[in-house]
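dumping this here before i forget
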Amino acid sequence: MSRTNSPSRQQSHTRHICQGARKVLQTRAPRSKPPTRTALRAELERLHFTLDSIGDGLITVDMHQCITSINRAAQQLTGWQQDEALAKPLNQVFHLVNARTRQPIAPPVLLAWKSHSTVGLPADTLLVAKDGNEYFISSSIAPIYNASGKVTGAVLVFRDITRLRRAELELKEAQQFAASLIEHSLDMIIAVDQQRRIIEFNPAAERTLGYSRAEVLGQNISMLYATPQESERVRQLFLAQGEAVTEAWNRRKNGEVFPVLLAVSPLKNAEGEVIGTMGVSRDITALRRAEEQRIRSERLIALGQMAAALAHEINNPLQAIRSTLDLVLDFPLPERERAENLEIIRQEIERLGQVTERILRFARPAPATRRMVSIGDLIRQTLMLADKHLQHSHIQVTCELDDTPPILLAPEQMTQVFLNLILNAIEATGQDGKLDITARTENGSIVITFSNDGPTLSPEELAHLFEPFFTTKSDGTGLGLHICQTIVQQHNGTIIAENIGTERGVRFTIRLPLTVNSSQESV
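structure:
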């Protein structure tokens, strides 16, 4: 941005022009042979063409500040032709105003004469051309001396800096806009240099962390993390990825530790060189508390559902046991009928035991030893366990089991998952249903599907299908699929359900990774 008074480059340029003009005017032939009129005229023409060819505007004035010469560049900027401008007052041709106040500015010719030096124009000076166009200009004014050293006028040298000035203004506006964003952002914005020293610390960071900007500038960023290890973890994550979005733990000035959501990216200069790191983060303490409250609420809801399911599951066999006992105890019965009623009591007690076992399995999954197992073999063994159920319901089963590599898993647990999906398919399809089972290797995983032609599930059912105590059966506990999901997740896998038709057809897809950490031998 050009400054007021005396821009050194412009002044130097002016001095060179004035000195050159002075030398030309003072050029003399040898004393013994005075220059002829022709020679003088040639020198003056050469000077005129030289001044007319330079890119800067040049105007000379006499002691009355009337124009005595104006070169081509000056004519183009002012809009005044030479024959129009000569002998005109300088202020009339060289019309200047302040860009901000719009007040006229008088060229400081008198100041140049009085100080016997080159002076510049104030900043934000506009030249108003004859046609009304305006140009930001940089200019300097210097006295003109004759051969005896007497001031005979002044020379003005100026150039159009409109594009430069507008670029400076746009840059300034962009800088002010960026500064305003940083200043008024609700997120913490902290920048560090290559040595991880803090170079930017916005007001949101001051409010959140409790430090003033002056306290942290120049300090290592690790002072703001909960522990040095947490600071190093974020640094390594950034180095590995080039940028990072992660949850981290910060420490306030008062020692309080709190969670933040942090985005870290490189900080670059105008040339694109990385000069540091920029971090944008937000205190998520309130979000965490809301999430914990939501989880607690969901747990309470699940507890209520479990209580209702237990009440329903336990109440039915209890009612049967009570009515049967009343019959056995209060009425004389033939031995055969008495034995039949006692058998009913025994069956209902077993039913209660099964309900209790399912609840305990849900609450405390039993440890199971893992070993290398073929998925195809495990599916075939499970089908043998369910064979009587499949035959009774006349279920048509088709299998496409690729030769997949063995993987490390708990076979008893995975058998429970497969058996549950097969029995669910039998109940969903009813008599004469179809069940298709496939197993294949895909993208580092073994993909197993169980597709049945039972009725499709509603969007609400699909959304809650694996939640505990959610069931689509009138007599179900809603624990089977949740236990299946838990087992699959313990094997670092996933299980999803989806409709494969508009009215009928549901598919369960299990993905198990081929590589399982060998340290997880038991679960």
